[in-house]
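Sample A.
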Amino acid sequence: MKFPGGMNLQQMLKQAQQMQEKLQQEMEALRVEASVGGGMVSVEMRGTKEVTALKIDPEAVKEGDVEMLQDMIIAAVNEAGRKVDEAMKSKLGGMLPPGLGNLF
C-alpha cells in the first residue's frame, strides 16, 4: 500500500521494527551509575533498568542508621533510573525524523 508522496506501508513497518530492535540492543548495552551520600552508596543499572551492581561503603553500615542507608539506596536507584530515562530519550530522539525529536 502506498501513501501520498510514495511512502510504502510495509517499508515503514520494516523500518520501525529495525529501529525497535536497534533500540533494544542499545538498552541492553547501556550502563549508568549513580551515587549518593558522597559515594557512600552507588548503583549500576542497565538501560533496561535492571540493577547490575550495588556498592555500599562500609562506613555507611558502621553508623548503624539503617533508615538512612535505606533512603540512600532508594535515592541511588531512582537517580540511576532517571539517568537511563535521559539517555534513552536522547537516543530515541536521535532516531526520529527531523522535527519529531522534540516530542519526548
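Sample B, a different protein:
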Amino acid sequence: MQLIRAIIRSEKSATVIKALFEAGYVAVTKVPVVGRGKQRGIKIGDITYDEIPKDLLMIVVNDEDKDFPVKTIIEAARTGENGAFGDGKIFVSPVEEAYTISRGTKEL
C-alpha cells in the first residue's frame, strides 16, 4: 500500500476531495498546515509572510492504484492550465502496516 500526502492550497481542498470521491477514493484525511516552499513565502508591501496556510490531504491506496489518485490531485489542485507557484506538492511513500482500531485487525 502507498500513502499519498498532498499539500495544497486551502481553497482547492473541496475541489480535490470531490474529485477523489468521484474517482472512487472516498477515504481522505484533511489537516490544516502552515509552511513554505521554494518561494520562501510571499511578500506584500513591506511584510513577508513566510508561513503560508495550506491543507494536507492524506489517502492510502493499493500499490497498483497510486498513479490515478496522484493524477487526480494534480488536475484538481492546479491553478489555471499551467499551474502556479504555491500550488503544492505530493509525496508518495510505502505503508508498512495498517490496523483497524475497531476490530483490532492488521490490514496488511
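Observation for Sample B: The mean pLDDT is 91.
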